[in-house]
Amino acid sequence: MPDADRGPDAADGSDVFDVVVVGAGPAGGSAARAAAAAGARVCVLERAAVPRYKTCGGGLVGLSADHVGLDLTGLVRATASSLTLTLDGRYEVSRGRRHGQPWLSMVMRAELDAALLAAAQTAGATVRTGVQVMGLTEAAEDGEDGGWVTVRLRQGADVRARVVIGADGTSGRCGTHVGVRCDQVDVGLEGEFVVDAAMADRWTGRMLIDWGPVPGSYGWVFPKGRVLTVGVIGDREQGAALRGYYRSLVDRYGLTDLPREHDSGHLTRVRAAGSPLRRGRVLVSGDAAGLLDPWTREGISFALRSGRLAGEAAAAAVAAPRASGPHGVAALAAYPARVERILGPEMDAGREVLAAFARRPAVMHALLSSPGTFGLFTRLIEGRTTVARQLRRPGVRAVVAALAG
């Protein structure tokens, strides 16, 4: 952009950009790359040094692989073409695929985030790490300058932008500014265990999903070479029971006394229906917006897609002619509807399945373990179908409704 479009006054010590992205996770990296590729002058602000550890199973479902926009060859630690399903350790069913693509690819979130951020930098984005955002202030839409957002920092000069994209997670400043509301809060507990060669071989190509004893909970074991990522997730109100479930899962597979690279917990928050995704010139995406699957709590694919949509909207707003509103506000106004249209049905479907799963976990296990339904479940993992698409089938909807009722 020409210097004439950089802002009303840069002599006050503030830095000025077209778009500021707060947060450097999958949503932030995707947003920054999309906006920079469209010609916007972009700055990413990230509190931590990158790469940095994030609590995440690191299993890339098909939708994530489809939308990541990266060559994953150097990032994939392992793949899984065999899946074991259990119900709190019982009724084990394992099925595998002899040929073809694996069902799931395993990555380390720190490495994925760093690769996405590098791609944004290649597209032209500026990245600043070690920066803590304290709040946002929007200027009025007046005069030829239009509106601006000032990003207030704990240290250093404030940063100004035509548009701010909040990708700073569930407890970030941007979601608070926009007024994001969430009606489902879960806690995830996870460890990364260093295993010997023999145990690594036993888990090669195989992943496990365990439907847990806490209503709506489940656990997982994902192999990543000499590291096994093991975790559980469920309703935050059942925190004590979930901690017990996590300990039992770790003990069940002989991991209790093994060294751990990480052992951590995190909260996931699911957006309430009708919760805002925009306030003025501030958009939110990914976890900052509460965008994830309510049943599986899978968020990477939602972050990648909503981040890209936010980046495209921000770039369009900066480049839009006056006819579409002061500096393209109309482009920003279209963002929530695009998110609702693309991601809303998936979240609605996830809520329905979660209700059925929480009420009838044993029946769900039996259904998903049967040969026909198991194939459907793996197609969901691969991204060849979605829960929303399946719920449009009258028979599937009737079964889910009966289980939830």
Summarize the model shown.
36% of the residues lie in helices and 27% in strands. The chain contains 13 helices and 18 strands.
- Major sheet details: 8 strands, mixed
Beta-sheet strand percentage? 25-35%
Number of helices: 13
Mean pLDDT: 91
Specify Rg, calculated over alpha carbons.
22 Å
* Helical amount: 25-40%
Low-confidence stretches: 1-13
The N- to C-terminal Cα distance equals: 56 Å
The outline comes out as globular
Alpha-beta classification: alpha/beta
DSSP strand count:
18
Outline the structure in words.
- Helix 1 (26-37) packs parallel to helix 7 (300-319) and helix 9 (335-359) crosses helix 13 (394-404).
- It contains 13 helices and 18 strands.
- By secondary structure, the protein is α/β, with parallel strands linked by helices.
Descriptive key words:
405 residues, eight-stranded mixed beta sheet
Chain-wise SSE layout:
Blueprint: E1 15-22, H1 26-37, E2 42-46, E3 59-60, H2 62-67, E4 78-80, E5 82-87, E6 90-96, E7 104-106, H3 109-123, E8 126-129, E9 133-138, E10 149-153, E11 159-166, H4 173-178, E12 182-194, H5 197-203, E13 206-211, E14 218-224, E15 227-235, H6 239-252, E16 260-271, E17 278-279, E18 282-284, H7 300-319, H8 329-333, H9 335-359, H10 361-369, H11 371-382, H12 387-391, H13 394-404
Parallel strand pairs: 1-2, 1-11, 2-8, 5-13, 11-18
Antiparallel strand pairs: 3-7, 4-7, 5-6, 9-10, 10-11, 12-15, 12-16, 13-14, 14-15, 17-18
Helix pairs in contact: 1-3, 1-7, 7-9, 9-10, 9-13
